[in-house]
Specification:
The structure is a single chain. The chain has about 240 residues and is an all-alpha fold. The chain has one domain: Orthogonal Bundle (Cd81 Antigen, Extracellular Domain, Chain: A). The chain has eight helices and two strands. The chain has helices at about 5-35, 40-45, 55-85, 90-115, 120-135, 140-160, 170-180, 195-235, and strands at about 50, 50-55. The chain has a two-stranded antiparallel ribbon with strand order 1-2. A hairpin with a 2-residue loop joins strand 1 (about 50) and strand 2. Helix 3 runs antiparallel to helix 4 (about 90-115). The radius of gyration is 25 Å and the shape is rod-shaped. The chain starts with 5 loop residues before the first helix and ends with a helix. The relative contact order is 0.16.
């Protein structure tokens, strides 16, 4: 015999929430792997020009997210097993892991909110640098000009855009008409790559934020239930 009454109900509720937490860890891991291998982001963030690598802030964040998803699955399994076995040691370890994860999530959320626009700004700066080099490079430096054109072509074909936000529409039109780095189907009135880059990363940042909020709510319930169950086990006459 183990715990009885309300504590037994808490035990199965904790198991249920831990199972949800384990599934959430799998979802976080899956989303992180999707973000890492998504054609739109990976093709842009793996670009290089003149020895300069595209900003890696987003990829670093995704790698951290992959690790978090894996840890969540391990901790979720630990919580499920500890609840079923009614082990104070496992539940205490589970609670400590949750506190650490929750603190890291809050810190990451604050940092991400404060720097939510930095990823798109860094990539826009990289794009502008390549764009300006492609227009300013002299004809004698053909190798650098071809490298710039190749990088721009990946940007334009991936995002279906052409030109900077502040670029002259006539310049964009000439670029479209006399080069092959811009998609021919893109209209000159809707070709702002700055807007496209911001849209691409803002959508993904909001997706990560919603997932983090849901996980945080689940963690709060789990921390409460694990402590209640641990106290119930300690006060149970069977133990």
């Amino acid at each position: 015999m183990g715990v009885e009454g309300c504590t037994k109900c808490i035990k199965y509720m904790l198991f249920f929430f831990n199972f949800i937490f384990w599934l959430a860890g799998g979802v976080v891991l899956g989303v992180a792997l999707w973000l890492r291998h998504d054609n739109h982001t990976s093709s842009l963030l793996e670009l290089k020009f003149d020895g300069q690598q595209a900003p890696t802030t987003f990829l670093n964040s995704v790698h951290i997210l992959i690790a978090v998803g894996a840890v969540m699955m391990v901790v979720g399994f630990l919580g499920c097993y500890g609840a079923i076995q009614e082990s104070q040691c496992l539940l205490g370890t589970f609670f400590a892991c949750l506190v650490i994860l929750f603190a890291c999530e809050v810190a990451a959320g604050i940092f991400g909110f404060m720097h939510k626009d930095s990823i798109s700004k860094e990539l826009i700066t990289f794009y502008d640098n390549v764009y300006e080099n492609s227009l300013a490079t002299t004809l004698t430096d053909q190798e650098k000009k071809q490298a710039a054109a190749a990088v721009l072509k990946v940007f334009h074909e991936t995002l279906e855009c052409c030109g900077k936000g502040s670029s002259n529409p006539l310049t964009t039109l000439i670029t479209q008409g006399f080069t092959d780095i811009c998609p021919k189907s893109v209209s000159t009135s809707t070709t702002d790559c700055h807007v496209k880059i911001k849209q691409l990363f803002n959508e993904k940042v909001y997706l990560i934020g919603i997932a983090a909020l849901i996980v945080a709510i689940i963690m709060i319930f789990e921390m409460t239930f694990s402590m209640v169950l641990c106290c119930g086990i300690r006060n149970s006459p069977v133990y």
